[in-house]
Amino acid sequence: MFSGVAAFKIAIGTMAVAITNGAADTLTRSLSLELAPIRVNALSPGVIDTGAWDGLGETAKAELFKDMSMRNPARRIGTEEDIASAAIFALTNTFLTGVTLAVDGGEALV
Fold first, then answer.
1. Which of these is catalytic: 3, 30, 44, 69?
2. In angstroms, rounded to a whole number, what is the distance separating the alpha carbons of residues 102 and 105?
3. Is 16 helix (H, G, I), strand (E, B) or coil?
4. Catalytic: 3?
5. pLDDT tens digits for 76-109?
6. φ, ψ (nearest 5 deg) of residue 87
7. How many Cβ atoms from other residues are within 10 Å of residue 56's Cβ?
């Protein structure tokens, strides 16, 4: 499953996303018990450099990425490879279940 930082970092104007992300987190934990021993986990990506941000326009996207890179503890924007490697970890670690794995460069901390 996928969640998002909005579940943990509440901001004005993001209520619908926060509720959806929080529901995904709760569903992940609930299903891990209901479906055991089938494992259920979620990924919670931060700002990832994908085409999802292209609608902002080149300048606004660059400004957002610069700002986020300066504020998050990893000091960079995430990549598709960051999410892919986290997904492989979650899929292959047979002792991981009921977890929402934050792959956000520490974004939720600031």
1. 3
2. 8
3. helix
4. yes
5. 999 999 999 999 999 999 999 999 999 999 998 8
6. -65, -40
7. 13
Distance CA 73, CA 58 (A): 24
Tokens coding 110: 């600031």
In one-letter notation, the amino acid at residue 19 is: I
Residue 29's pLDDT is 98
Sequence-ordered list of residues with C-beta below 8 angstroms from that of 10, at least 6 positions apart, any chain: 18
Number of helical (H) and strand (E) elements in the chain, helices listed first: 3, 2
Residue 36 corresponds to which tokens in the numbers above? 């055991």
Instruction: Give buried/exposed letters for 66-103 (b at 16+ CB in 10 A, else e).
Output: eebeeebeeeebbeeebbeebeeebeeeeeebbbbbbb
Residue the block writes with tokens 């934990």? 29
Q: Which CATH class is domain 5-105?
A: alpha beta
